[in-house]
Specification:
Blueprint (H helix, E strand, L loop, with lengths): L1 E4 H6 L1 H11 L3 E5 L2 E6 L2 H23 L7 H7 L2 E4 L4 E4 L1
Parallel strand pairs: 1-2
Antiparallel strand pairs: 2-3, 4-5
Length: about 90
């Protein structure tokens, strides 16, 4: 994995992007020694998305097995949403 100052990546953006897109390299960007972001190939991002989806599905399946229910109104209130009867959709208030 390559570590690169954000300013240098900005100066050499096309080259940095080529390294990621065509060579499959991962680039960690830093500012003043602190890591702030990463450039990764699309395949890596797709893997992260699939992992997140799997974890979300597992959490949802676990929640569905929990006993009891939560009234719709309470759920909306807990999330800071107001139920719009005209459209039947919750929205933030």
């Amino acid at each position: 994995m390559i570590r690169l100052a954000a300013s240098k990546a900005r100066e050499e953006f096309a080259n940095t992007l080529d390294r990621v897109a065509h060579r499959g390299e991962r680039v960690v960007l830093h500012r003043r020694g602190k890591e702030v972001a990463a450039l990764v190939p699309m395949a890596d991002l797709e893997l992260i998305r699939r992992i997140e989806d799997k974890l979300d599905n597992e959490a949802a399946n676990k929640a569905l097995k929990e006993p009891g229910t939560i009234p719709w109104e309470k759920l909306n209130a807990d999330l800071g949403l107001e139920y719009t009867v005209a459209r039947g959709l919750p929205h933030r208030i």
